[in-house]
Amino acid sequence: MKIAKLAFGLICLAILASNIVTMSRWSEARGVYDDICYLRQAHLFQRLGVGGLNTNVALDYDHYFEGKLKEIAFAEWSDQMRWPCHNPMPNGKIVMQYPPGTGFLLALFPEGHQVVPLYVAASLIVCGLALSGIAMARTLPSVVVAGLFGALTVYLMINPAKASYSVAPTMALCAVTGFLTALWLSRDKRSVLLIALIGLLLGASVNFRLPNTLLAAGYFLFLGIPFLWTRSLATFVQGLGFGAGVIVGMMPTLIAQAINAGSPLATTYGSVDVVAPAFDLVVLGHYLRDMQFVLIVLAIGSTAWLLRVGEGSVRQVALVVAGNLAVNLVFFLSHPIFTSYYIVPIAMLSLWSVSFAWLMQQAAPLGREPASLEASSR
To answer: Does the keyword Transmembrane helix apply (predicted)?
Structure first.
């Protein structure tokens, strides 16, 4: 079994090394509008500090974004009303539509060399957790499953994570949150600080992509429904800690929306981007032919399997994941727009949570009973 662990560990490291070599050749001017918009946010943070939360086009007095538009041969670079991923607000500002988290992380690295370090850092986090899963495995089948899953997660940092700069940090946060979710539910006495940390990370993920708000849905259902049923103080405190963590994590986006759109709850997206739910067979067909379909099948299959055979804390992890999957799939599959990464965050959060729950159950001391919700509420 040690040989199998070593072999899969080396496979994950080999994929990581290959990814880093590939990433080192990436250009920051590949002609994608989203890319230069995230880089503009990073430039604002580097130039203005916290003032970079204000993305008003009037702050482009150094002509940074105009230069980026010229690099990708954008014909209407001089017309700010036509700038990509910027929208006019009721307050008269023309602001960037994206939340500030991705730009903030890019700003941590030197201008001109920002994207590759961000992806390498996120890949190292994902690979580290993949190796941890392999190390935790206690049987040969579990080593094989953990090894294959680990190799897949590292590979995904190239495809589809390259599709948007916001996906790489989201993938890393999903991996960490999945581990912490399994850890939180596997303990005999559940820590309020741990669930608050999970909430903080999920809230922070909203700073990369606004739809990441839905990643917290399953946790709210898991904590809220038992509270309504039992009115337990312990369950209330857990829910309060989680909710507070989510709000604190989202605070940069709420502040940015207040500055740019006039209210913390006002969106900076244009009306063309805010579409009503509608099932579209063409969009559903795109998902069926995409890698996302494979990930969702794996997430649903592994969750259903744990619901069937899992006990105690493992089943409770599966319940959290099942609620999360249901809410997110209803939203995205009824969203009449397709991209190659929309469903990836919920799929990866689900798979990481289920994987670590299964591995932690194997690693539990012999004779120890898994934690139960009833016991944690006493």
So the answer is: yes
